[in-house]
Amino acid sequence: MAQRVTFRRRNPYNTRSNKIKVVKTPGGVLRAQHTKKLATRPKCGDTGVPLQGVSALRPRAYAQVSKTSKTVSRAYGGVLSANAVKERVIRAFLIEEQKIVKKVVKEQTEAAKKAEKKTSKKAKKN
To answer: Which family does it belong to (predicted)?
Structure first.
């Protein structure tokens, strides 16, 4: 005859937080062993990719672990993935370059206009 197993805690419902695993003790008795919820890996804020080098723990457990297991030694380490940071750096660089190019083009057009005005004044005098 199969042995029945009941919950050991006060919650009698089969909820996500009340999962059990049936374990046979050395005495041959089946007991309910409550299992903890599995932790999901932290994800990148931009791309949604799981972060490498950051331990996957339940939220409260991060308070007990060292800083090295929560972050990566990089800008935005433990928050954004390496590719996302690389993309941000490249985007910022290109935006700055674009501003410089715009400024140079504007200066060149202004210089060309001044040169045209000077040549037109000389042509009028002659």
So the answer is: Belongs to the eukaryotic ribosomal protein eL34 family.
